[in-house]
């Protein structure tokens, strides 16, 4: 069946004519004469086992595993993934799922990004996004799914546009105006606008329609701009962005004028703290900002009022307390803020009182058969995300190669994702047509695994 013959009611209730449905992706890939036939479950598992055997034979990868009492390498062969994508030849630093289609975009240390399907077994490559000259470390799909953007460590930004309802992607524009891109964030409501933070502290805002065009450049930070969040997103007459930096400042910007609405520094934030992470609360009224030495700042978005600055972590080495991940739950009954650090701790704060309700420690649950000492960083938290019917399931990826799901009400681990032989740098969730969800990981060994969630 050609794309032109598809009925309107087959498009996943998507009014955007550029997009295709779950079934249509499968049909399109099936029409590719060069596509390999899907492997059976046994063949799929044999391939994964073979990949893991190769890892065991590679001396360079020994540091990714534990050692038994005789000094022999031990690799965890447990694998409950349903599929995998292994086109990358280096670590996967960026992962994003399409908002409407079963598509995933990954970017890695091999200077390449790919768009591939996460509903087929094995996944099928839809597009290879070439043009980067260094590691692809940032990017994502636009909220309407019509565009994709990638950014690399040489500062190159490339935009891609979906054609044939997502069957293919064509280059839409390319710029290189900074030395290094650190993050990229799309505006959640004005879908064709995105911002990026650069290593020189500058912040650039672009529009994608009708072409890739710079809107403004924001200068205030003197050191790398480490993260940003769009705020006041329902006000369509304004364009407001918040950013943080290693120089210890947090700024609320009016993007249209290029001026700051307010700026916080050493005085307001109780000392000079390198900020590395930020997350907006579900109400949009509060933003949490995490520091590289464990400080957690809670700030009122409208006025820049510092609600509290909390010291997290218990290590004497401040960098071990670095906050690597933040997540808010959208639960009305149990509003929480989750904070994860380099040492493998996850702290759950009550989002009203900012008191700790519970702590998870990955070090205490990581398999350690030979009782060797776990070094700092081996269990570092890399991403946190609340999900589930009541938004009280907390997903956590870490450098020990496992993704865990906790029920935050009782602290029980309700699911684990196994299959990686080294750290997991991030993950993304993708809905299925049947109402379920898939979790797709970004592995430090260059492999993405797809898990069907229970």
Automatic annotation (TrEMBL):
The keyword Zinc does not apply. SMART domains: WD40. Keywords: Repeat, WD repeat. PROSITE patterns: WD_REPEATS_2, WD_REPEATS_REGION. It holds the Pfam family WD40. Residues 20-62 have a biased composition (Acidic residues). It comes from the Eukaryota. WD repeats lie at residues 85-116. The keyword Repeat applies. Residues 1-72 are annotated as: Disordered. PANTHER family: ANGIO-ASSOCIATED MIGRATORY CELL PROTEIN (PTHR19857:SF8), MITOCHONDRIAL DIVISION PROTEIN 1-RELATED (PTHR19857). This is Essential protein.
